């Protein structure tokens, strides 16, 4: 089922390899990743020594999977909003004030920012490692084996199938804007960017509607409907 739904070229984060971690059953890797993230999140604020152990586990898994650290580091860009928020916490939090690099910051906010940044980084790295060692089709099959609700798994499969289509549309829109001399360098250009993203959303929604109608006209029925079972 998943090979038909997703296709062969829709594993944006997958790093091809033949390591033991790549060959491990996908549902085991999912359970291990979730357990790891729960352990990281449950670490009390203000205690930082466990993070060294968590990082060592990720480093060992990365070494076993033979994945270049730079490959994962480049994809940590998704964490930028968390980094920005963590950078503000010491300044906006209340409580005892301490001096850091000549600046007055909140001690509680400083500890919270450090914990947030460490937990977010370790969680993102764990998710990236799972994605890098597990093809999207195997990932969906693993979620099905773990009894995740069928419709949710199917939605994720379609999302993985069409994310590259949407990214292609975004790239073409960007080229079109640049060809017309548009070069966003200041906040006054943000309305144009917002309008472009809105147009992309509407276009993607309409494409989804057309694809759904076309599938129904060809006899499509959900694999997780009444009386059916995941294939």
Summarize the structure.
Strand 1 and strand 2 (103-106) form a beta hairpin. Mean pLDDT is 82; it is low at 1-10 and 225-231. This protein has helices at residues 2-6, 20-23, 26-41, 49-65, 69-74, 80-92, 107-133, 136-145, 150-179, 190-217; strands at residues 97-100, 103-106.
Number of strands: 2
Question: How many domains, in number, for the residues?
Answer: 2
Gyration radius, in Å: 22 Å
The coarse overall form would be: globular
Q: What is the distance, rounded to the nearest whole angstrom, between the alpha carbons of the first and last residues?
A: 6 Å
Instruction: Enumerate the spans where pLDDT stays under 50 for 5 or more consecutive residues.
Output: 1-10, 225-231
By secondary-structure content and strand pairing, the structural class works out as mainly alpha
Main beta sheet strand tally, sense and closure = 2 strands, antiparallel
The level of helicity is 55-70%
- Please state the average pLDDT score: 82
Protein model, in words:
With 231 residues, the chain is mainly α. It has two domains: 2-141, no CATH class; 149-217. The chain contains ten helices and two strands; from the N terminus they run H-H-H-H-H-H-E-E-H-H-H-H. It has helices at 2-6, 20-23, 26-41, 49-65, 69-74, 80-92, 107-133, 136-145, 150-179, 190-217, and strands spanning 97-100, 103-106. Strands 1-2 form a two-stranded antiparallel sheet. Strand 1 and strand 2 (103-106) form a beta hairpin. It is globular. The N and C termini lie close together (6 Å). The model is unreliable at 1-10 and 225-231 (pLDDT under 50).
């Amino acid at each position: 089922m998943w090979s038909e739904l997703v296709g062969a070229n829709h594993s944006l984060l997958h790093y091809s390899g033949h390591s033991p971690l790549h060959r491990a059953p996908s549902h085991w890797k999912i359970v291990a990743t979730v357990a790891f993230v729960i352990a990281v999140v449950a670490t009390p604020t203000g205690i930082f020594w466990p993070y060294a152990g968590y990082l060592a586990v990720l480093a060992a898994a990365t070494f076993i999977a033979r994945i270049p650290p730079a490959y994962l580091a480049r994809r940590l860009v998704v964490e930028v909003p968390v980094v920005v928020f963590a950078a503000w916490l010491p300044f906006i939090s209340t409580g005892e004030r301490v001096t850091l690099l000549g600046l007055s910051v909140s001690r509680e906010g400083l500890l919270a920012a450090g914990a947030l940044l460490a937990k977010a980084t370790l969680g993102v790295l764990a998710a990236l490692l799972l994605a890098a060692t597990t093809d999207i089709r195997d990932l969906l099959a693993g979620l099905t084996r773990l009894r995740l609700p069928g419709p949710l798994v199917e939605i994720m499969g379609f999302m993985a199938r069409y994310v590259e289509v949407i990214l292609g549309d975004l790239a073409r829109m960007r080229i079109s804007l640049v060809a017309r001399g548009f070069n966003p360098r200041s906040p006054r250009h943000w309305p144009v960017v917002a309008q472009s993203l809105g147009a992309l959303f509407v276009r993607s929604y309409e494409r989804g509607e057309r694809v759904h109608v076309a599938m129904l006209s060809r006899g499509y029925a959900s694999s997780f409907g009444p009386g059916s079972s995941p294939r």
